[in-house]
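FIELD: query
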Amino acid sequence: MEYYLFLLLTLGITLGAQAYLNSTYNKYVKVKNSKKITGAEVARKILDQNNLKNVKVVETSDTLSDHYDPKEKVVRLSTDIYKGESIASVSVAAHECGHAIQHKDGYVFLRIRSSIVPVVNIASKAGYLLIVIGLIAGFAQLFLLGILCEVIILLFQLITLPVEFDASHRGLKQIQDLGLVEAGEVSSARSMLTAAAMTYVASVATAIIQILRLVLMSRGRN
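FIELD: result
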């Protein structure tokens, strides 16, 4: 019974965080910023101000698919953010530029996260496969190895938290320093960035719950 409670708790946290983000995004994507500046213009201004003229700003089609690509040195913004003149557009664009600034500055947690990506990719593919095989075949060692893979993924998510919060902090500072929105709109931008950050907090919480559930399953089999 406790296994199902863990699953329900995990689902509740994940859906709750996503609902919070979607609700906040849908609210602020409809609120025009008083400067009538687009996300693309915000990104370009922040990048140029931070001597990142070599970083391109391009449009992508998927909603909330915005990200900074350190290999290609590109800030990719979804259409609503790229072309929009909303508070959400300013906030998201500034956040992604925050990652570009982190990359330029050699932000330690970003470097650590990037260095362990290959290991995390292997762990994410192998983790539950090892767990399932361990359960079916009765191999406790494989089951425990699968749990170890999930711990590696959790470590990656924990390292991601300061990366995302710092990018939001840098982005918000750029918004204020460059006067990209009026003073009264800064709190709205902060709310948008906070909602996005909560999805990463939820990912950590759900990963911890999943690992606890697996540990309990392991003890139950002994």
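FIELD: remark
The chain has seven helices and three strands.
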